[in-house]
Write a structure and sequence with these properties.
The chain has one helix and six strands. With about 130 residues, it is mostly beta strands. It has a five-stranded mixed beta barrel. It is globular. The C terminus is likely disordered.
Length: about 130
Amino acid sequence: MLNRIVLIGRLTKDPELRYTPNGVAKASFTLAVDRPFKNLQGEKETDFINIVVWQKQAENVANYLSKGKLAAVDGRLQIRSYEGQDGQRRWITEVVADTVRFLSPKDSGESSSMDLISAEIESDDDLPF
């Protein structure tokens, strides 16, 4: 079985960095990804996909990515649910990133090369769940 997603898009806002009670970093952000086709009105449509990143990679994302930056995400789809205060079941769909590559040029005008910083999770054992 395979659960793999590869996305390239722009951040809709700055990443949000938090820490679990055990001190594990978790960053979340939304990636705007254009669909590869136009709708019946001839307009491009965009999907807004929630991304979650853990550990050192989460800290790197929070430090180096910001709203509007281009990023590539390689990860897996996760669907989870919880019960809301009103007793209704709520579903959350998100991508848990294994790798995030920063594709926007560096902010410092020193170089026009692409910033390909990435921090990869070494194994699934590093994940806090």
